[in-house]
Amino acid sequence: MAGRSTTELEHFPNVVSMFFIRAEENGEAPFLWRKAEGEWRSISWREAAEQVCQLADALKRLGLNPGDRVVLVSENRPEWCIADLAIMAAGCITVPTYTTNTENDHVHILEDSRARAAIVSTQKLATTVARAAYRSSHCSTIIGIEPMKLGQSGGIAYHDWTSLLGAETPDVEATAAAADFKREDLACVIYTSGTGGAPRGVMQHHGALLHNCEGCYSVIAEDFGLDDEVFLSFLPLSHAYEHTAGQFFPISCGAQIYYSEGLDKLASNIVDTRPTIMVVVPRLFEVLRQRLLKQMEKQGKFPQFMFRRALEIGEKDYEGEKKIKDRPMDILLDMILRPKIKQRFGGRLKAMVAGGAPLNPEIGVFFHSLGLTLLQGYGQTESGPVISCNRPKTGLKMDTVGPPLKNTDVRIAEDGEILIRGELVMQGYWRNEAETKRTIKDGWLHTGDIGHIDEAGRIAITDRKKDLIVNDKGDNVAPQRVEGMLTLEPEILQAMVVGDKRPHLVGLLVPDPDWTREWAAENGVPNDDVALRDNGDYQRALNAAVDRVNKDLATVEKVRRTILADEPFTIENDQMTPSMKIRRHILKDIYGERLDALYKR
What we know:
Elements lengths: L14 H12 L3 E7 L2 E6 H17 L7 E5 L4 H12 L3 E5 L5 H11 L3 E4 L2 H13 L5 E4 L12 E4 H5 L6 H7 L7 E7 L7 E6 H18 L6 E4 L6 H14 L2 E4 L6 H8 L3 E4 L1 H16 L3 H19 L7 H10 L1 H6 L7 E4 L6 H9 L4 E6 L6 E4 L19 E4 L4 E5 L6 E2 L3 H7 E2 L2 E10 L5 E6 L4 E2 L5 E2 L1 H8 L5 E7 L6 E7 L1 H10 L6 H5 L2 H15 L8 E6 L19 H14 L4
Parallel strand pairs: 1-11, 3-4, 3-5, 5-6, 6-7, 10-11, 12-13, 13-14, 25-26
Antiparallel strand pairs: 1-2, 8-9, 9-18, 14-15, 16-17, 17-20, 19-20, 20-21, 22-23, 24-25
C-alpha cells in the first residue's frame, strides 16, 4: 500500500467494488483474523471474496431482491464483514443491530425497516431475534452463522450459513461485475436513538461511506504514511463509527483486520496482533490511564521520577513550551520509558483515533507525553459518521476535534450550531420525512452541536444543542424514552436520567404521592417524606419499579442507581417549562453532586 495516491479512492463507484478490487490486488494475503483454539487464524482476501459471492448468490436464491433490507445481528467476527459485503453485493441493504438489543428493540427495527431476512451469529442471539421475527410483518428468513435450533418454524425459514456457502462454486468476476451500484445508492440503514424516543434509521449511501474512507485515508497517508496496516476491531460493528472506520476504511487501505476476543482480553490481543491503527472510544483510555497510574505507585523512586518527568515534558511539548534544557531528559525517556509503554500497545502503533464520545483533553495530553499519538475525531451516524479528526500537521489541540475531512464543508449557524455539507451527509431518516426535513435544510446537516472554528480551521465543540446522552463508550441514549417508561410505572411520578460520558445511566425519581400514601398505609408506617427516604422497604419497592422497566431496556439504557428528589418538578419551582418539559440544567444544578456520588458507590 505504500505510495498509493490519496485521491485514488475517489474513483470507486461503491464499497462492494472497492472490496473486490482490493481482494484482486491482495489475493492470498491474509485479510480477516480470528483467534480459535488458542491460535490466530486468517481468511485470505481471495477466500473472503469467494465467500461474499457465495452468500450473495444464496441471498438471491432465497428470493431476496435488490433494495430488500437484511438485518445483521452478530458480535465482531470475520462473518460480520463477509455478511455485510454479501448483502450489499446482492443489491440488498444492510441493517446492523446491536447484540444487546431487547426483543422489543428488534421488533421495532424489523418492522420499521420492513426487513425480509435476518443474519444472526449464535443460538442465544437467534432466540431473541426469532421471537421478534414472529411478531414482525415482513421477516420470513433467518440465516444462522453458527448451527442452531429454533424449534417450530412458525412461518420463518431457517438456513445454515455453512450449507449456503457451500452450495455453489463462486464466480467472483461475475459478482464483481454485477456490483454496478452508484455512489448515491443506499448501502445501509443504521438505527440510532433520537431525542423523540424510538430509534431512527439513518440512510447511509455508498458515497457517504466512500467519502469517509477517502478522508480518513488522507489523514493517515499524509500525516503518518500508509504501509501494511493492521487494525484490531473491538468496538461494536453495529455502531456507525466501527462500521466505517473499523471495517470499510481498512478495506480501502488493503489492511488486515483482527477481531478482538472481547474487552477482557483486549490488552493481550493488542500485544499479540501489534496493530498499526486503532479505532477507540475515550473511555478505554480513561481506564488505561488509571491502570498506569496505579501500577506506577507500586514502582520504585526512579521509575516514578521518570514517569513524572515524562508527563511534565510531554505537557510542555503539547503547549509548545519545551525548552532546550529538557532535551537530555527527553532523549533518556525515549530510550528507557516510552519504548516500554509502546510495547504494551504492540510496538508499531501509528495512531489511535478516538471517537463516539468526547475526549477529556487531559487524557490526550497524558498519552502524548508517553509517546503515543491519540487523535480525537468527531462525527455522527448522519454523516457517515466521520466529520473531522485531529491531525499532527495542523497541530494537536486536544480541546478541538480537528479540521474537517477533505471535501467536507462546515459552517457555524447564527445560534452557534455546527452545520455540515458534502457527500458524507445521509440521504435522510428511513420512512421519516418530517425528521429528515428538520435535520437537513438546503443540503446542510444540522448536527445539534454548538461550537466554533478556530484560527487553524479546527472544530471546537462547546455544547450540545440536543439532549441526547452519549455514554463513555459512545453509545447514544435518548433520555426521554427511558424517562417516559419509568413514569408509566405506578410508583413513579416524574424522572430524569443522566449518564453523559459515564459508564451507565443513573436516575432522579419523584415517587407518585398517591402510590406512596397507599404503600405507607399498607405497611403501617407514617406517610412522611423524610422518614420514608430512610425506609429500606420503601426504597426496595421503588427499585422494583425501576427493575421492571430495565427488563425492557437495552443494556446501555438500563438505570443502575437512583436517588429521590426533594420535591416534585413544577413550573413554580422552575424545574419544568410551561409546556411541561423538565429543565435539565436546573435539575443538574440542584442534584448534580448527589447524582455524581452514585458512580462512587
